[in-house]
Structure formats: structure tokens, C-alpha cells
Amino acid sequence: MRKLSSIGLCVALSVSAAQGWAQTVVPTKGQSSQQTQMDINECNSVAASQAASTDTSPSGGRVKGAAAGAAAGAAAAGVRGNQHEVYENANSNVKQEYRQNQAKGAAAAGAVVGGSRQRQERRADEKTSAANSQTAYTSCLQGKGYQVNP
What pLDDT, on a 0 to 100 scale, did the predictor assign at position 137? Predict the structure, then answer.
């Protein structure tokens, strides 16, 4: 059986190395290809556990937005209604219905805004998590005596 040259080993490892990380891993302490593969797998596990432990996906954005919108809508309806003489003369059922309609509309808008903010936060968290995983993976391999090239 023929031995792989160091360049061949680097190419093979760069293709199969990390889950989604296109990098070249070069052994600097004479590690065998089997040891290198074991170290890569271990560092993949370290990076995956790092990502799992820092996963703080935002939730409840729509509900929070709807609640804030409903409160704002009801308050605004009360303020707007008090500015008109007709509102003062209306019976309490009509006033209540007006406030509820305004609150519903504002709650719907708040749910849309809350959902949008939640998606933006989740995307930012995903980018941060990916960068943290990448750093953990690279640091792990460097600690085991490998040169990691992008």
C-alpha cells in the first residue's frame, strides 16, 4: 500500500475535514492520518457542543409585539376618542367596541413587527454561533498541533 504524501494528505483532509468548514488541516507534529482524522472528529464534536450550548434562539417575538401593539392601540383609541365630542356622548358599549377595534389593528401590526425583529435576531444569532463554532474548531485543532488554513 502506498503512503500518502503530505500534500495528498492535506488535500484529502481539506475535502473531508470539517462539517461545512472548507479548510486545510496540516499536521505539524508528525501525526498519522488516523490520528488526524480522530482529532478532526473530536474537534467537530467540541465545535458542535459549543454551538449547542450557546443556542439562545429568541422566541415569543410575535406575542410580545402583539401585546405591546394591543396596549398601544387601546391607549391611542382612548386618547383619540377623548379629543372628539361625539365620543364623549357615545354609550360605553360603543366606546369599548372602538377601543377593541383599535387594539386589534395595533396588535396585528405589533405581531408583524415582533416577528420581523425575532427573525432579525435569530439571523444575527446564527451568524454569531457559526463564528463561535468555527473558532472552537480551529482552536481545538491548533491545540492538538495542527495548522489550520482557510
Answer: 92
Q: What is the 3-state secondary structure (H, E, C) of the chain?
A: CCCCCHHHHHHHHHHHCCCCCCCEEEECCCCCHHHHHHHHHHHHHHHHHHHHHCCCCCCCHHHHHHHHHHHHHHHHHHHHHHCCHHHHHCCHHHHHHHHHHHHHHHHHHHHHHHHHHHHHHHHHHHHHHHHHHHHHHHHHHHHCCEEEEC
| Structural domain for 101, as ranges | 61-130
Cα–Cα distance for residue pair 100/75, rounded to 1 Å: 10
Name residue, grid cell 356622548. Answer: 89
- Report residue 35's pLDDT band, with 50, 70 and 90 as the boundaries: very high
Answer yes or no: is 1 within a domain: no
Residue 137 located in a structural domain: no
pLDDT value of position 42 = 93
Residue with grid cell 377595534, as numbered in its chain:
101
